[in-house]
Amino acid sequence: MELLKRVPENTNVITAHLGNGASITAIEHGISIDTSMGFTPLEGLVMGTRSGDIDPAIFCFLETRGYTCEQINAMLNKKSGLLGISGLSNDLRDLEAAAAQGNTRAQLALGVYAHRVRKYIGAYTANLVRVDALVFTGGIGQHGVLMRERICHRLENIGIFMDYGLNTALGSGEGVVSSPYSPIAILVVPTNEELQIAIDTYSLIFGSDGRLRRRRTDFT
After folding, report:
1. What is the rounded CA–CA span in Å between residue 170 and residue 176?
2. Burial letters 160-187, b for 16+ CB under 10 A, else e
3. Domains in the chain, ordered, with CATH?
4. Mean pLDDT confidence for 50-78
5. 142 burial class (0-12, 13-18, 19+ CB within 10 angstroms)?
6. What are the two backbone dihedrals, phi and then psi, of residue 137, each rounded to the nearest 5 degrees?
7. Could you give the CA distance from residue 181 to residue 162 in angstroms, rounded to a whole number?
8. Residue 8 in contact with residue 30, Cβ under 8 Å?
9. Which helix (H) or strand (E) holds 12?
10. What is the Cα–Cα distance from 46 to 138, expressed in whole angstroms?
11. Percentage of residues in the chain with pLDDT exceeding 70?
12. How many other CB atoms sit within 10 Å of the CB of residue 206?
């Protein structure tokens, strides 16, 4: 919110937390109203080794080919995503290096990854009354300069215009990478999940007043 100079209660944001695990969240007036992950983290975006969204009938198809439920679950969680498509690696850096050398499966994996992110950004843009900012975070979101470009390249028609020079110059830093005339700001914000977990844990144990809460078993 500091980069936007806005308060959360008056801000609508789409956050793209991209890493080996990845999700996109639509935030309206500071409150999450939708996220790409579902009953398990498997739903949603293509990830490092997770498939993301698939046709549910694939389960039945694979069973007819002799795969067990455990094998299918392992396949979709540990052998799919960027790794499965490329047949090479789940590491974005490896795939970008291979793609630059002409590896077509690495190029395909990167293209599918960006395509799936754009689909969710488009869907959430349609569901929000307005969008003030698109935020990239997570390992790929923060460090994947080229992936940010791939994702934003076809988003101009919904008001998201990247300044590619700013994006390259920012690298893995924190800041704004949208063009000055972009109706929707594009931000890169490093994440600190461990700190947030610590803050939430402290609040749960001590409460907002800093006083140690009694255990539930202490109440009669």
Report:
1. 8
2. bbbbeebbeebeeeeebbbbeebebbbb
3. 8-51+111-218 (3.30.420.40)
4. 95
5. buried
6. -150, 180
7. 10
8. yes
9. strand 12-17
10. 14
11. 94
12. 12
Listing DSSP states for 71-102 in one string gives HHHHHHHHS-HHHHHHSS-S-HHHHHHHHHTT
**Is the CB of residue 77 less than 8 Å from the CB of residue 50?**
yes
Task: Report which residue type is found at 82.
Answer: L
Task: Read off the tokens for 97.
Answer: 């290096």
Per-residue pLDDT tens for 139-196?
999 999 999 999 999 999 999 999 999 999 999 999 999 999 999 999 999 987 788 8
Cβ atoms 47, 21 nearer than 8 A? yes
pTM more than 0.85? yes
Six token digits for residue 187: 């931000």
Residue with tokens 């698939």: 54
Neighbour-count burial of 202, counting CB atoms closer than 10 A to its CB (0-12 exposed, 13-18 middle, 19+ buried): exposed
Residue 215 confidence (pLDDT): 54
Q: What is the pLDDT of residues 95-126, one digit of tens each?
A: 999 999 999 999 999 999 999 999 999 999 99
SS3 content of the chain, % helix, strand, coil (to 5): 45, 15, 40
Residues comprising the chain, all counted: 220
Rounded distance, CA 134 to CA 121, Å? 8
